Amino acid sequence: MKKILIYILLFIIICFILPAIFTNNAINAKETISNVDNQQENNNENQEKNSENTEQNSNYEYKKYGTIKLLHQKTGQVEEVQLDNYLLNVVSAEMPATFEIEALKAQAIVARTYTVYKIKNKKHENADICDDSSCCQAWISKEDRLAKWEESKREENWKKIEECVNKTKGKIITYNNEPINAFFHSNSGGTTEMPVNVWGGTGYPYLQVVETAGEEGYTQYSSEVILTLEELKNKLKTKYSDIQIDENNNEDIKILEYTDSGRVKTVKFGNHNISGVETRTLLGLRSANFEIIKENGNYKFSVKGYGHGVGMSQTGADAMAKQGSNAEEIIHHFYTDVEIKDINSI
């Protein structure tokens, strides 16, 4: 009887259970193969798209502005260079290669826009733009740039700069179909500034006060300058020879007014009221966003940010890129109501 039961069980296993197991395994194997095929197909599609983008970028032809005249301020020499070759030297001078690629791409678009704006609004008689950052935008030769980088990082860094320029070929920022005056700076201290508060004039509608998170982690975010009263007066006397400050009167050194961005608009130094921007220049401060604290008879200027604060903050761009923003999102954050267009379309 036991043998009969065993035979019956074996018969059931052979006829019903084993075929079901093999069928499931076959289905799973087929699904796995299908998934692998789909994944490979997606990878191939992405590779094809990347290849197409790279090919499109490498084949891009400028109908205008493809060649610029660059003035080297130290020598007075004017050199004709390809626009994007020039931008390699600008981006590598203006932004650290360690920054995120999307921040570097944003910098490339901003620098290209700034260059075209300068071409259309000439400042130099025989050149489109110069290599002096205090006048136009910074520029450094490839040889000098490579020499300043750690040897093991040179090739990698330069390829990264080339990638950000080449992948943005032809892209510029426009307002009313015209290239904008694409100002940028190192660190906004959390809030950008309007140009009218820096240089006067009527300003630009696309350059507004915007807030940016994440800049606190950069060394450019905070700094301080400590001066004795005598040192302070000597610095102010380079412009205001009749300056008089009573150190016993706490009202003789006082911030009187702030801009909408929180920067100093006017500060009282004894018998003179001086703008925050001019104070920054005279005292060698990193920005006009500062506080004045009297400590042990000295005056401490506690500063937030680095630069004039107008337009794109470079560290702010990097902070946004770290949070997942792409180059175009970064640009739209710092420049109000603008469009990113192909330069050949304007």
- Helix coverage percent: 40-55%
The oligomeric status of these chains comes to single chain
Strand content: 15-25%
Total separate domains: 2
Structural class: alpha+beta
- Low-confidence segments, given as residue ranges, are 18-56
Radius of gyration: 30 Å
End-to-end gap: 95 Å
**What general outline do the C-alpha atoms trace?**
elongated
Can you give the mean pLDDT?
A: 88
How would you describe what is shown here?
- This protein is α+β, with helices and mostly antiparallel strands.
- The strands form 5 sheets. Strands 2-1-3 form a 3-stranded mixed beta sheet. Strands 5-4-14 form a 3-stranded antiparallel beta sheet. The protein has a 3-stranded antiparallel beta sheet with strand order 7-12-11.
- It has 2 domains: 187 residues, no CATH class; 83 residues, no CATH class.
- It has 10 helices and 14 strands.
- Helix 3 runs antiparallel to helix 9 and helix 3 packs across helix 10.
- A hairpin with a 2-residue loop joins strand 4 and strand 5.
- It is elongated, with a radius of gyration of 30 Å.
